[in-house]
Write a sequence for this structure.
């Protein structure tokens, strides 16, 4: 199981938002590149980078940060504001190894399918972030009519391989990742599902890894608040 330290970008800073609320923001670093280097030094092989400005449709320079981080010895999974083929092309050109589609899939499924065809299932990751049992869009501010499993099964049938599942109600609050929903999504769809949202303990990492169904987990607040080290997290995933 791959662990992805999170680097959420807003206004050029590394931040965390509670439940995706821009009014509940904590700033952890003003140097995203130094933050990335720190996680790499501690053993990260992948980083999950989120362009929060893009998710909220705000102007930003986060592609330049992506470009700098992508030059480091790490792979970057990039999310936030990727709502057109041009945005996907720009992020890919900046060095992203994997691109997360969320809003685009719901808002413009035809373009999302074109992206999946162009880049393939290893590059495109499907964002199935949920609130109240429905997939959210536009930086988690709007609810769609689709459940994660419903949408996941459909896109898996179109060639998707990877998916990201965040329980929005738990994100940024150390409330514990929604293990049951994540495992159920992986088993129902056959997608390589990455767990996200509220992961708070090494025991949760072990449970996800022991399921043999979940492909990865994103860790944000727990690392930034020192609940455990990345080294201990990697060991927990390995020992499961």
């Amino acid at each position: 199981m791959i662990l992805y330290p999170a680097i959420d970008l807003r206004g050029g800073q590394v931040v965390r938002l509670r439940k995706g609320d821009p009014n509940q923001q904590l700033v952890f670093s003003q140097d995203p590149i130094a933050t990335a280097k720190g996680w790499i030094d501690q053993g990260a092989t992948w980083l999950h980078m989120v362009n929060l400005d893009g998710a909220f449709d705000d102007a930003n320079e986060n592609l330049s940060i992506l470009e700098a981080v992508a030059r480091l010895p790490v792979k970057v999974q990039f999310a936030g504001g990727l709502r057109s083929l041009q945005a996907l092309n720009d992020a890919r050109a900046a060095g992203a190894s994997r691109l997360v589609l969320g809003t685009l899939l719901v808002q413009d499924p035809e373009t999302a399918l074109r992206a999946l065809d162009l880049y393939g299932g290893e590059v495109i990751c499907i964002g199935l972030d949920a609130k109240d049992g429905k997939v959210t869009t536009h930086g988690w501010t709007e609810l769609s009519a689709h459940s994660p499993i419903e949408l996941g099964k459909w896109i898996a049938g179109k060639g998707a391989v990877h998916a990201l599942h965040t329980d929005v109600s738990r994100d940024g609050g150390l409330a514990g990742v929604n293990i049951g929903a994540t495992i159920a999504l992986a088993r129902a769809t056959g997608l390589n599902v990455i767990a996200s949202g509220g992961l708070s303990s090494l025991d949760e990492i072990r449970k996800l890894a022991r399921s043999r169904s979940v492909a990865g987990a994103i860790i944000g607040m727990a690392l930034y608040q020192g609940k455990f080290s990345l080294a201990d997290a990697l060991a927990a995933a390995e020992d499961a």
Observations:
- The CA atoms of residues 55 and 139 lie 5 Å apart.
- The radius of gyration is 16 Å.
- The mean pLDDT is 91.
